[in-house]
Design goal:
By secondary structure, the chain is an alpha+beta fold. It folds into 3 domains: about 5-265, Spore Coat Polysaccharide Biosynthesis Protein SpsA, Chain A, CATH 3.90.550.10; about 275-340, no CATH class; about 350-455, Jelly Rolls, CATH 2.60.120.10. The chain contains 11 helices and 28 strands. The strands form 6 sheets. The chain has a 6-stranded antiparallel sheet with strand order 18-19-20-27-22-25. It has a 5-stranded mixed β-barrel with strand order 6-9-7-8-12. Helix 6 packs across helix 7 (about 210-220). The relative contact order is 0.12.
Length: about 450
């Protein structure tokens, strides 16, 4: 039997805003400019003979980010399970159990972790697998390298019960600085959040410690439905479930838990400081007399001079400058400016769709300019808009157009005009990417001004 990976991909990573946003959280952002995001690195890590095809669990807002990564790399997977609303890790763990066989050994893996030594990591998972077969809950504990207040900790008994595996004494949530120093000195481990457990035993734990909510999860499972590549959990019961972590719902209860210590270069990339630990500067940046700063730019050239102890983030939409060590305040900052600047978009300009993606290139009073990227063999819905007109220009590839009752082809450097209220569709019948520029004009230019007539994605 092989390990059954459950990829947890519902987090929003708000402490990394504006790198991480609601429409593209950190696991889908290529932070280190390696042509792979963290979600893809996680799938690469478990694409080998030791693992079954993974189950991916996320929320409905992230489904097209997931689909884009899967299509890009041709990943094999079992299911993509989607929550109506994020409920933290306990409900996600519970839902996953219902899609797996009782005898399977499940491995719950966050999709936003940085892990450098994959070989050692996999070897440790295989050790955990053997222990989990004996109806034990096993968690990986990272050997701490500093007193970090952004991680939970695991205290454990030094007497080995299984080879390289120890009984957990207690879990400590993210501590104050003084407590973190004490835990570090006492060789407490960082809690990785990576859990390995037999499915039948996990169901037993949920029935014992999470019974009422587990029943709601089961009802949601019973009312789940398939659409495209996705399995949507039933909304009604799911939305009655509280937001609760697996640590609080299960791990902190009184029963025997095991931990395997692991010494690798690991990072949950939850703050700008944690990214700085790996790389101090990323992207289009020139640093002059710049000390103890994390600098990032995926837009225009960012130049820093004679500054220290700052996080400086420059994206296409937003520039953020904040004091280093203050990443936990970013959630509050984002909440405040959303209230003050309600009409502005605090997401990244790129948005994934089942047919590809679009980017907002610019907008002003009465107009918006987009770049459309339509994948081979894909097409947008047959649709119309009531409040805007559109100009389309093909810049790469060949577009097959439906415009009212007409059907025709557009090649590079050719264009067409779609009147307000006119039905239309773009299709890419070729094996190459189609890139178009769309210029919208009208009094109202939001995404909800749309009526779909035919849609192969059943939206």
């Amino acid at each position: 039997m092989k390990i059954k990976p459950i990829i947890l991909s519902g987090g929003s990573g708000t402490r990394l805003w504006p790198l991480s946003t609601e429409n593209k959280p950190k696991q889908f952002f290529d932070i280190f400019d390696k042509n792979n995001n963290l979600f893809e690195e996680t799938l690469n890590r478990i694409t080998n003979l030791n693992f079954e095809k993974p189950i991916i669990i996320s929320n409905k807002n992230q489904r097209f980010n997931i689909l884009k990564s899967i299509r890009k790399n041709n990943y094999k997977y079992d299911k993509i399970i989607l929550e109506d609303k994020p409920k933290n890790t306990a409900p996600a763990f519970a839902a996953s159990t219902l899609f797996c066989k009782n005898e399977e050994i499940l491995c719950f893996l966050p999709s936003d972790h940085y892990i450098q030594n994959n070989k050692k990591f996999i070897t440790t998972l295989l050790k955990a697998y053997k222990v989990a077969m004996s109806d034990q809950l096993v968690i990986l504990g990272l050997e701490s390298t500093e007193p970090n207040i952004n991680y939970g900790y695991i205290k454990y008994n030094n007497k080995s019960i299984y080879k390289d595996c120890f009984e957990v004494d207690s879990f400590i949530e993210k501590p104050e600085r003084s407590k973190a120093i004490q835990l570090y000195k006492n060789n407490a481990l960082w809690n990785s959040g990576i859990v390995i457990i037999k499915n039948s035993y996990l169901k037993f734990l949920f029935n014992k410690y999470f019974k009422k909510n587990f029943l709601l999860v089961k009802n949601s499972f019973d009312n789940s439905y398939k659409n495209m590549e996705f399995t949507f959990l039933g909304q009604k019961d799911w939305n009655k479930i509280p937001v609760i972590s697996f640590d609080y719902a299960i791990l902190e209860k009184t029963f025997k838990k095991m931990v395997i210590p692991l010494a690798i270069n690991w990072n949950d990339l939850g703050t700008f400081e944690s990214i700085h630990d790996i790389k101090e500067s990323i992207g289009q940046v020139e640093r002059i007399n710049t000390k103890n700063c994390f600098t990032f730019s995926n837009n225009n050239l960012l130049v820093t001079n004679d500054v220290k102890d700052l996080n400086i983030i420059n994206t296409k939409e937003i520039t953020l400058v904040t004091k280093k060590g203050d990443s936990n305040a970013i959630k509050k900052v984002l909440k405040k400016i959303k209230l003050k600047r309600k009409k502005e978009n605090f997401n990244q300009s790129d948005s994934n769709r089942p047919w590809g993606s679009f980017s907002n290139l610019g907008q002003g009073d009465g107009y918006k300019v987009k770049k459309l990227h339509i994948l081979p063999g894909q097409k947008i819905s047959l649709q119309k808009h009531f409040k805007r007109s559109e100009h389309w220009v093909v810049v790469q590839g060949t577009a097959f157009i439906i415009k009212g009752k007409k059907q025709f082809k557009l090649n590079a450097n050719q264009s067409t005009f779609i009147k307000k209220g006119e039905t239309h569709r773009i299709e890419n019948k070729s094996k190459k990417d189609l890139i178009m520029i769309e210029i919208q004009t009208g009094a109202y230019l939001e995404e909800d001004d749309i009526k779909r007539f035919k849609d192969i994605y059943n939206r």
